[in-house]
Design a protein that fits this description.
This protein has four helices and 19 strands. It is mainly beta and 445 residues long. It has a 14-stranded antiparallel barrel with strand order 1-3-4-5-6-7-8-11-12-15-16-17-18-19. A hairpin with a 3-residue loop joins strand 11 and strand 12. The N terminus and C terminus are likely disordered.
Amino acid sequence: MRRALRFLLAIVFLASGVSTARAGGFEVPDQSAVAGATGGASTARSDDPSAAFYNPAALADAGGFRGALGLLLAVPSISATALEDTLETASTTQSVSPPPHLHLSFAENEWAIGAYLGISHGTSVNWPEGWWGRYEAMSSGLLVFRAAPFFALRLGGERGLIAGFPDVRVSLGAHVDVARAETARMLDFIDVEGRVQVLMWGAGVGGDASIYWQATPELAFGLTYKSRTWMRASGDADFTVPDPFLGRAPDQHASTELVIPDRLVLGAAWQQREFGIFVDVGYTAWSVRDRQRVDFSSPNTADSDVPQSWHDTVALRLGGEVTPIEWLHARAGLYYDMEAAPSSTLGPASPDMARFGVTLGLGVDVTREFGADVSYGYVALLGRESTSDDAPLARYGGDIHVISLTLRLAVETSGQPEPEIETEPEIETEPEIETDAASELEPPA
């Protein structure tokens, strides 16, 4: 029983880097079809409503109202091959995760306000019934809903606060995260099997800041920082065990700590009317996940404290866009994300792997204000082997197919009163006097 409890919820929130997650750990970097089509590089892009997520400072351009609503559809497939005994292979069951995203902003003169609403982090992995690693994990899922309002200010450039100052824009904001984590695994009682499932909720707050610099009409740079979010998650642990073990593993309350890591991204963009190139370099401080401790309310159930030893990661993203005709945009990109979990803690509840992705997409401007975008990405999960002492040795691999759909709306406002149109003064003319032609020819009496 102690062995079963040792692994019980050892990785409650440890996500797999699959399903909705596409960056190291369980980050969801693709928050619009525009960015998704260019490999996720969008920190220095200035013309997309999703800057509310990627770089809110870029929106301080007096551009009026901008909004975007979309879905990210991810279909992952993960395989695990045991390296001991039978060398049996199992694959995760197919599932589709559709996290939504909403971007809203309004900019006038030198300021802008707005907010991002969506799933900032998430993952889901589900193994088939009866698979060889069922005593380590049957399923693991995490969704983090984030609400992030911001205020942006334009310091220089056209309509900036400081005359003659370079076109530099800054933003400050906050984010509120609400997390839902669920995990399940089978328990081995020699002759029979049991099961435990835990569902926890937590919430926390953090801060955001960004800078955007329009160096030339074509060249721009962006830098964004999103702080870590600490939260205490709690919920219920439901046990299904043989009667003799009911006293040691009753249904009870459980809690743990969850930290969403700091994220720093530097981007550059070269944009002209016909084409654009976008580059991002991202750093995520996954080393905040050093250990995973789960506290159970019952004194008869041993708490779990397992090392995780995640390390910080770097992501490289590159994308391009061409506009062959005024209303059509074609995009492509690629990226590489490092894995966050070391091989010593790699397991079926957290088969985190490095990723290499290739992306394609199209955008259509239906009208001057309204447009639609679609993107597709193929993500190869680079196979790796576990060396964990607490989980069966296995080799993991797989891929993800990702489709993103976004609808966008932009309504410009001048922010200035319309100029009066000068008109020439009317010239008064004397009215013409109509006369009778016959009377004009008649001689006077």
